[in-house]
Amino acid sequence: MPIVKTFGLELFGIGLLKLGASVITFVNPIILDELIAFVGSNDPYWKGFIFAAGMFFAALIESFLSGQYEYRIYVIATRIRSCIISVVYKKALVLSNSARKNFTVGEVVNLMSVDTQRMMDYVQMVNLLWSAPLQIIIAIYLLWQQLGIATLGGLFVMILMIPINGFITYFIRSSQVLLMKDKDRRTKLMNEILNGIKVLKLYAWENSFIKVVMNFRSNEVASLRSQAYLMGAVTFAFSSAPFLVSLASFATYVLIDSDNVLDANKAFVSLSLFNILKIPTAFLPIIITYTAMFLVSLKRINKYLQGEEIDPDIINHDPSEKDAVVVENATFSWTKEDSPALTNLNFRAPEGKLVAVVGQVGSGKSSLLSALLGDMVKWCGKVNVKGSVAYVPQQAWIQNATLRKNVLFTKSLDENKYKTVLDACALAQDLEILPGGDMTEIGEKGINLSGGQKQRVSLARAVYSDADIYYLDDPLSAVDAHVGKHIFEHVIGPDGLLQKKTRILVTHRISVLPDVDTIVVLVNGQISEMGSYQELLAKKGAFADFLIQYLQENVSESAEQILPDELNLIQEIAATVGAPPELTRQLSKISDGGSDSDSVVKLKRGMSLTSPEAGEGLRRRTKSQMDTPDKMSGNLRRDSIKKSTENLKKQTSKSPVSGTNLTEKETMAVGSVKSSVYMDYIRSYGYWNFFYIVVGFTLLNGFSVGSSLWLSVWSNDSLNPDSASDTHLRDLRLGVYGALGGGEVIFTFLTSIMTNLSCLRAAKILHDGMLEHIMRAPMSFFDTTPLGRILNRFSKDIDTADVTIRFNVRMLFIQGFRALGAIIIISMETPFFLLTCLPLIVLYYFLQKFYIPTSRQLKRLESTTRSPVYSHFSETVTGASSIRAYEASNIFMTHSNQLVDINHESYYPSLGASRWLSIRLEFLGYTIVFLAALFAVFLRDTLSPGIAGLSVSYALQVTGILNMLVRATADVETNIVAVERCLEYSKTPVEAEWYNKKTKPDDAWPQKGEIKFDNYSTRYREGLELVLKDITCVIKPCERVGIVGRTGAGKSSLTLALFRIIEAARGKITIDGVHIAKLGLHDLRNKLTIIPQDPVLFTGTLRSNLDPFGSYSDQALWQSLEQSHLKSFVTSLEKGLEHEVSEGGENLSVGQRQLVCLARALLRKTKVLILDEATAAVDVETDELIQSTIRTKFDDCTVLTIAHRLNTIMDYDKVIVLSKGEIVEMDKPENLLKREDSIFYSMAKDAGLV
User: Which residues of the chain have pLDDT under 50?
Assistant: First the structure.
């Protein structure tokens, strides 16, 4: 086992310390035997003083050895935890796709939080596996010295316990396996919920997911409850062991021979040995439970670490190859079990050339880039990549850091290069909008950036890396036409920054194809054709079919909108590729009579699909329209740089200002935990439950003290010959002793069950309260709170409430009542002891008052610094492909280790503080032992041996009891921080009520779909500027309205306002005359439908993703799939609607995910439909499918479309142009295009429409 190999020698050395401490523990019972004998003798006092001093120094040596042992074992455990977190993180960077399916982000977060903690806890206690049995053996040997063969009676009882506990341990382990599975499912689902919370709110699906989470939580609590009963059984068995051993031993001793008398020596030396036995026997059930937990966690971590890794040998890096990228006869699949996704690929990408990859949805375009990155399984063939790689994924990966850090990534800052890259990637204008320029913190997953901005930041990162080879997965899809044109010209194209680099570009912008060197056409995972634009047109093969399909779609849909010069180009293409008769007839009809085609101009995808000659013409025309006529000379046009340099200097040199940091720092309470936290926790117990627990522990302690006092009385019978020979009295003594001990055992079991179940009840209430508040929190909360921070509450903090606090609370009750009982007994027998005891108790109080604030704050700091570890991990898993592509794995590993080190910087001091406390507590405890022994020596003439033995044996316990009491108090207050943190999130501000009975609209509302904005203004959060200002407009029933504007104009804010994701600052919105601010949020959101920009799917079935409430029939589901063009795909799946969707929908393409969102919209079919750049991240074909369905199936609905592809809204009834949160233009598109000074006209011009 690697842990043993790495830390074995240190663990062995630490074990020797434990061995010494375990053995020296038995010195004091031996000295106690001599001391009791001394009290009953006339030996000189100096012997008594030696015995008292011997007890003190033996305890002091044990304290030193135990202190060193505990500190060192905790340090080792912490280092082991660091190592496990490190290897789990490292594994995440190299995990194959097939292995990733088995381990979701939530599950791996559990490995890093819960399972590593289990391993750490076990290492701290592992030596008890041998030291506890060793102490039991030594105790039995010493008992043999006292009671002789009678010890066999006790030994028989202990042997009987072994199979019983083995049986219980088996069930604990089985329960732990089920528990961790349920915990994984819950954490995994919470991770998905937090990632898709915006979609849940827009669809009003929170209740459905709350029920699923609570169902998982109920299963988890059921497993914990089973463990509570099993723990009660184990506690019963082990707590009864010392009593049953003592009862069996004493009974055997006095019954086997009538001459055997239980005197003070035998009674109290045996009692002190039995008390020592209580410690290992009390810890044995805990170590057994922890062993079961450890084995389960070890198995889970091993399974993860043994998961299949990406094969680094898939990609060769032979520098002698002529071309930058070479693929020969290569076949790839996503997993070893899957059928090939890419078959028999052969192509070369020469150095410095631009290669475009095109094809239909699902043809394997993105898979090709994944294969070149080494992310797929290679069945055969050869792949060689010569040089460094930069990768721009289709869905931009953004870090929770500043914009500058996202662009620089792992590189150092070169001001001139940096500004050139920002300008080329069209980020200059964005820096003006962002409050802190490039030092503005981008929220988690780029939450405060639009889809286009995220994609441009991702592209800027790639360009700045100055790699040799660029894999660009459709980077132009998420940006507006004019921005896409700028990026192609200034970055990707033949005159762009990357002109000398090798570029492999997956694209659906066919307008750029005339400017690429080579086009690769993929069909069903195979390269159908490859060549230049002109060559492929001339072949009239798959590429020509591809073009004809688009021509048919464009001409048939908008024949009246084609301009004469466009018609000439399209006819030329049709003539070159051989258009079908139907298309030829349509073109002839337009050419002969046509319609008033110059009234409306629509961007046609077919415009760019020109013949070879037309392609040259288009290229010349495109270049003539460029902002800067100068040619590139190696890099970006100098004039283009010059015009934006001054502005960029201002924006990139901004100091952080208010609003720069979107993510709020995690709040950390200071000072003592508020009494309200304890009251809330006790309230969660249930007041009656808490009362029963206190009564139970009182009775438990009463029986314990009673049995000890009874033993003292019994031992004094030996001083009276008549009493010693009275068998009836002997039987009475034995019977009462047995009854008192039996009562102690029974109440030990009952208090264990009551405490565990009450703690579980409290933990469940904490979880459910936190879940409901989190699900009802406004979006502003999620915008400013990293998901890892929230997930930390639902994983580590809830686990602390589930498990750790249970042990802490029970230990606090046990040790508190034991301390009270010990002081009562010692004071009863030796009243003078109170005079010395009271000052010592005051010292104890001040020590714990000094220690607990430090310990508590260190725990808070440790909890706060733990969240970034999980956030960084979640971020890393999402961007693993990009990290590997940029060869930044080691840098990210180092950063992860630094975060763990920061976390441990608050943990290590807590170890030192703990040892500081222990040394002082134990010294005071040994002082108590010394004083008790001295009193026994000084007062031997007035004390009976029985009373002296009882007093000193309890003094020996007091050291451990008070030590453990202070520690238990500290542990409760330290770990109650987890409760404090959960309660903090249980009191977060919430949205408006989901349902409002007073204002609930009719079921048929809205019937018309008329939307009115009346002087409406809003902001995202208090203290921020307005994002919409005095919006006033009327959208008539069944109108189709396009909403356009530059980045940051407020387009998405308008849709969020309709759903009340953001609330009005002033003004109002009405739908069919109903003021939406007066409705319940779910009453409103259930009546609106949105197809969001980012298609979010959840783990589960296709059915649950379409209909989480089970509200629709199978017929309705299949109808929606047919209308969304998914029926044939779903029918081809083995399980159909029950097809399992992986985390985030990763086993579906982006286009398919967006079509699932369309199917959701078709199911809801409300009177108002909003498309929030719904086609921004999909290919043109999927865009066509969505637009076609919307035109036909939502023709009787009011449709609002935020569009960056202007052609999708050119036939709409109205266009709203937003700028800086205000409506600056609103009219029919044809009217706006007639005004050359309009913003819409300039946008259409940039898009190539005019």
Answer: 556-566, 569, 593-660
